[in-house]
Amino acid sequence: MKAASSFIAAAGLFATASLALEPITIKGSKFFHADGTQYFMKGIAYQRSPFDPLLDKEQCQLDARLMKELGANAIRVYHVDPDGNHDDCMKIYEDIGVYAFIDLDTFHTYIEQDGPPHWNDTQLTEYIKVLDNLAGYANLGGVFVGNEIITTSNGSFAAPYIKSAVRDIKTYMDQKNFSRKIPVGYSAADIAELRPNLQNYLACGDDSSVNVDFFGLNAYEWCGNETSYHISGYDMLNKNATDYPVPIFFSETGCNVPTPRDFKDQFAIFGPEMQDVWSGAIIYEWIQEDNNYGLVDYGPADPKTAIGGDTWARGGTPTRLPDFTVLRSVWASVSPSGVAKDKYTKTNGPISCPASTSGIWNVDPTSPLPSLGQTALAAEASGESVDRASKTGDAPSETSTNPNSAGKNKAMVQLSGGLVAIIIALAALL
């Protein structure tokens, strides 16, 4: 249950604090506030409710009070109800200076790595519903067209379908004459064999209408007491991103070894090693679950109402965990020195599209992107580099299992696992 005293205190906070945020913009490889100062992301993966954490006003007030104390200026939300009213929660987070970065897919509209991959009208329609619901909020920082779609080293054949989604979302915004260009990006799994090919492919060439506006990496490399900038591999991540033409940031990070976490990677991300290249980080995650990545908890779950067998509650009065205290201290001590927008000259020009390499990067950079309604060929799904032929279909895709992906709820994965197996079996017969 929510404590009444905490709720009253939170209400008082929001009565006196109102920042009236203006949208952040992108110039070259950096985010900027409306006043021209550079925006560095100190974000939290806010997956309190797997279906939509932005519908409960009282819960948002309780959580936002602690997020302000933590020093957060962004949240990432993996799923929202396209028919829900988000006015209260978006305003609550706006008032404490927090931008929301939202995934457009729903549990039934993921672009699949397996299945084989496809991008169709059903998926686009559902993405658009989410976009339309949120587009009017000034603190909508950007939208993701996918999270960890490619999870294996031979999954590169799905990359063109990600780029097709970017293309069609941007086309829709242009056709509807949106009042501003809402940044569109992708959040990638940290697959060593694909770096930096996927990262570069999604932003290569000079056609901004099909390229991501930002790129997020879900990386958990900085682990262990003796880890450093070089030992962790962050030095290579930084090297591979040095000439990237759009903002790049950690869309998930925060290895939980050791426990409690020390968050030492934040000193590198916001320090002289990486601040000129990276735009910040989103820490995984807000609530405590069985995976032990939480910053706060709400106590044990009621088994009668628990979602998908959860043993931790997903709402109530948040209690600070040790990781919260450490992160608050770390973020308070890092102040990246950015550049003013009017003093910044973007020097990173178009980058070349990665060449097709059999068994490593099975994407022909000269091939046209898949059209709306197209499905990958069986040969392509096997890892071969082929010319795509149109094969239409409008069946909604189902979510695939990835135990390390923050955006996929266990209960929904269990429900859809059988359907995925059937789809894959049918694809093999074709």
From TrEMBL:
Write the protein's name.
1,3-beta-glucanosyltransferase
Write the Enzyme Commission number(s) for this entry. Answer: 2.4.1.-
In terms of Gene3D superfamilies, this protein maps to: Glycosidases
Where is region (Disordered) located? 377-409
Q: Name one GO cellular component term.
A: side of membrane
Any single GO molecular-function term of the entry would be: 1,3-beta-glucanosyltransferase activity
InterPro entries in the record, alphabetically?
A: GH, Glucanosyltransferase
Identify the keywords attached in UniProt to this record, alphabetized: Glycoprotein, GPI-anchor, Lipoprotein, Membrane, Signal, Transferase
Q: How does it sit in the membrane?
A: Lipid-anchor; GPI-anchor
| Subcellular location, record wording | Cell membrane
Q: What does this protein do?
A: Splits internally a 1,3-beta-glucan molecule and transfers the newly generated reducing end (the donor) to the non-reducing end of another 1,3-beta-glucan molecule (the acceptor) forming a 1,3-beta linkage, resulting in the elongation of 1,3-beta-glucan chains in the cell wall.
Q: Does the keyword Thylakoid apply?
A: no
Q: What taxonomic classification does the UniProt entry list for its organism?
A: Eukaryota, Fungi, Dikarya, Ascomycota, Pezizomycotina
Name the residue ranges with Polar residues bias.
397-407
Signal peptide region = 1-20
Native organism = Drechslerella stenobrocha 248
Please state which protein family the record places this protein in. Belongs to the glycosyl hydrolase 72 family.
Q: Which domain of life is it from?
A: Eukaryota
> Alphabetically, which GO biological process terms does the record hold?
fungal-type cell wall (1->3)-beta-D-glucan biosynthetic process; fungal-type cell wall organization
Respond yes or no to whether keyword ATP-binding is given for this record. Answer: no
